[in-house]
Request: fold
Amino acid sequence: MLNKTQFSADFFKKLPYKPFCSLGKGGKTLIRSKKHAIQYPLIQVNHVHTVQYLIFDIDAPDAYLHFFDENLPVPTWIAKNKKNGHCHVCYELKTAVCKTAHARLKPLRYLASIEYTYAKKLNADLRYTGLLTKNPVDRDWQVFLLNPAAFELDELADYVDLETKPKPTEGEKKEVSGLGRNCMLFDTVRFWAYKAIREHLGSGLDIWYQEVLERSKTANGAFLEPLPYSEVKATAKSIAKWVWRNHHSAEFQAMFSEKQARKGRKGGLASDSSHGGKARSAKYSDIRHEALKLHVMGFNPTRIAKELGVSRPSVYKWVTEFTNQLQV
Reply:
C-alpha cells in the first residue's frame, strides 16, 4: 500500500505547472496553477507532451475488480465514484514516454499498444481522451492507493498478448483511441513529408514547418476525438525538424518506384544468365534498397528480414551503414 502523505506530495510534484481542471463531468474546463488545480475533483495528471500515467475509464458498478478479473498487475491507484462504482484506474510509468518526438516513435508505439490492450481487457472506454482524471487526492472520490512501484513498459506488457487498433479503411472517419491517435498522426504526416520535402528545400525551415503543421491539422481533423492543438503543433514541429535535418533519407525513400517495391517483396530480380554478375548485383541492390525503404518507414530489422526473406544480420548491416552515411 502507498503512504497517503508521501503519495500526495509526490503526486503534486509531478503535476503539470498549470494543469487543466474541472468541477465535474460536463462542467467548464479551466487552467489553473497546480496549487489551485489540486483542489478540483477532475485534474490533468500528464504533461502535454509526455505520458507519466496510463489512465483507464471504466463505467461499470464492479469497475474496481476488473484488473483482478483479468489477471492484470495491481494498479498504482484507483479513484472510484461513490455513487455508481465507476472508476479511473491508473498505472504510473517509471519512465515518462514522449508523445510528440519523432525520434521516440518506438516507445510511443509500444505504449500505445499496451494502452489499447489494457483498455480492452479492462472493458474501459476506448474513447476516453485521458485529459482529465479523477483527482486521487480529492475527497469527492473513494481512492485506493494500491501499488508503490511504478512500472516499466516491459513489465506491463508481460501480463498480456499485445494487440493494436485495426487501421480504418480509406475515407472512413478514424475512430482511433488514446495514444493510437499520436502514432497515426505521426505516420500520416511523416510519410507525406518524406516526399514533400523535395519541393520545399529552397523555401526555408519556417515555411516548411508551416506546411507540415497545416498537414498535421488536417490529419488530426479526421479523428472522431481529435488531439489537443498543443500536441498537434509539437508533433508537426518534430516531424518538420527531423525530415529537414535528414532529408537525404526522405529523398532516398522517394527514389523507389512501386515496381521496385514489388520486386523487393518477391526477393529481388530473378537471375539473368546472359548478364551474370550484373543481374545478381541488381538483385542485391533492389533488396538492399527495399530494406532501407522499410527502415525509413519505421520497420525494425527483424520485421524487414522476414518481409524480404533475408537474414537479420544483413538487414542490420545495411541499416547501420545507411545511418552512418546520414550522420557524416
